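Suppose a classmate hands you a notebook page containing two proteins, each written out with its sequence and a corresponding row of structure tokens. How would you begin to make sense of it? This section walks through that situation. The first entry is reproduced here exactly as it would appear on such a page.
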Amino acid sequence: MRVLVLGSGGREHALARALHRDPAVTALHCAPGNPGTAEIADNHQLDPADPTAVTELAGRLRADLVVVGPEAPLVAGVGDALRKAGIPCFGPDRAAARIEASKAFAKEVMAEAGVPTAEARVCDTTAQVEAALDAFGPPYVVKDDGLAAGKGVVVTVDRAVASAHAAACERVVIEEFLDGPEVSLFALCDGEHAVPLLPAQDFKRAYDDDEGPNTGGMGAYTPLPWAPPDLVDEVMATVVQPAMDELRRRETPYVGVLYAGLALTSKGVRVVEFNARFGDPETQVVLDRLATPIATLLQACAIGGLDPDLRPEWHPGAAVTVVVAAEGYPSAPAKGDEITGLEEAAEVEGAYVLHAGTKLGGEGRLVANGGRVLNVVGTGPDLAAARETAYDAVAKIGLRGSHHRADIALKAAPMP
């Protein structure tokens, strides 16, 4: 199978790594990829959100499958263009991708499908915003209605901060605050059926103890020893399948991965958000544990015929990923600083490094080229061992001014 992966971040490096390890994959390409994917695939420089350029490249490569990493290409209609050209695509078309592109649309789908979620109001004016903030009270949850690369949500007890965020957006969704821990669950979908992957938990705040601004994600881990044993079955029955059925009823069948961001509240499971692609950095740990070859799973979704009774097999043990972020992230990340110690980090048994925001600078030096620069993955027989391995590897890496959270998976598996 010849596979093309679209995107350039840590999620795409994790996807490429999983595909590279699949014996069914005979040729692997990434566009645009990064220096990490270049070690296991052929990189091609193009804009992954350009449907014409992507379709031309996929045709030239005779791709049997195109896997879309980020959300922007999906919203731009890359999936539509590929399918029109007869090229199998893992990722929804533009209409179905609105489940992520518009928080208001997602709420509408959930309401029609009976999916449990937070009460919410869609607001277009200042008066509507203030009325919604009055109605729900603190903590205030204000979401940009459109795409915001994982950074469009503000959760705050400060009314002025909530109002200011709303004012900076054209349209917002204001919700009731959901208590309880958050969980990410990915489901592979072929338009009719869905198969779940392992649940994971990520860490959105920039600093330890969930302090600081929201980011795209500072780390993640799986499995979740504290999660209810029937959680996955419940979410598939009450969230994923009803949402898929509603999208199919609207004649926009959902093909790809449906990411359900969940809150396990005192009143039960509630959907925080849907995303139309693999979560980053949860993908890095979920795919690490996946033992079932990934290419045939994704292709089955793209062409139809996914076995609804299939349950992927998983490696025993645990995985933890820690994000090494650039100085100034998330507000103004510094670029161009040299990265050192990757070889030493990779020598830590059970650890490896995925590139998330890197490029090759002058004289072939690896430098930072984004806010989240590296994903350091640690594995082990349990969470405690996996996180110790991850942090041992992080300690080998040098990047001026970089920062990372020291408490990824700590509460789930404290170090001795």
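The notebook's second entry, a different protein, reads as follows.
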Amino acid sequence: MTVTANSTPPPAAPKVAGGKGGRTRLSLPWILLIVAGGFIALSAVRALTGAQDLTSAGQISAALSLAVPIGLAGLGGLWAERAGVVNIGLEGMMILGTFFGAWAGWQTSPWIGVLAGILGGMFGGLLHAVATVTFGVDHIISGIAINILAVGVTTYFAKLWFNTGEASAKGGSPKQSPPAEDITSISIPGLSDWLADIEKHHWFLVSDLAGVLGGLVTNLSLLTIVAVLLLVGTFFVLWKTAFGLRLRSCGENPIAAESLGVNVYKYKYIAVIVSGGLAGLGGAFLSLVTSHIYNEGQTGGRGYIGLAAMIFGNWRPGGLAMGAGLFGFADALQLRGGGESVHALLLLLFAVLVAIAAWKAYQKRWITSSIAVVIGVGVFIWYLGTETVPVEFVSATPYVVTLLVLSLSAQRLRMPKADGMPYRKGQGK
């Protein structure tokens, strides 16, 4: 049978199932079981230590708000890397989103600011696509250049636009914009109050569940709902449509995709521009929902953490959402001054290390098991010898969690085969 130019490319390479080549991907029941086990452990730690803020509605609400920009940045990275383009420039695209979102938001409406933030991020994505796809610049170098360029551009325009005239009179300065109006937030009437009443009793597991659900249905920004819809939409588009199959084939084997008539350059451009737009939306969320103003250095490395969440999620939307939630939870702890909560989590970390040590001993990997035991004992002694943790450690919690999660999940990862690899048009003909 003759293959036409419009033929659908072959699916991505089959998943590795065990053996030396990789790990079997966890099924949904196993994932749900792990999540349930983790929640029960967290509830037990809360009950034992009295750190009530661990599962409070306020903590969960703050974690969700902080997880959204991380998740949007990670979602942008997923689009780009599924098409074979490494996007280290997510941080810079988020910076462009924060700036242009706030710039348009305070002058007009916050929703126009959201659109401006998306367009700012898309501009960064377009630059990255031109450099990497058309001119073949190394993806890492291009991404770092965009991060540097974004800082320089926003610093220059902040001094030009926010430090004079009406902007200055309304609170602008060379390092921040005037405040923008709020984006509407919603709560479910009745349900929020009912869950808050249950949470106050501090019952084991029941109150914890009420706190988590209460945080998810109270003062929920409409932009958060948009972010969730984008996560679901990404899964549908990339895994359930012919367009998504072609795009993913560009990240697995672009030469084979081109030989079947796929315009690889076009799909890479679309993916990287969408990637920039999603990162820009994450930046706009920071400046229009989280703080209502643009601040210099506002992203705080969340573009890089979003990339880490994407890697933790094995380049899939569901895993990315879990990673973003975990990092958002850690970020919320340090913003809420959670010295007591982080101290309580040392007990949970001790339990995790004991479980790892037991599992490695069962596998007869004695060195790894011994290391886990030693670290676990050290953590337990730290927990017993203190009542809280230093503020400096609390501030570093999101970054420590990032390193721990990536190191523990590294063995099961499988990136797209052609991710970051050079490709020139015509190789598949």
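A careful reader of the second entry would note: The chain has a mean pLDDT of 88.
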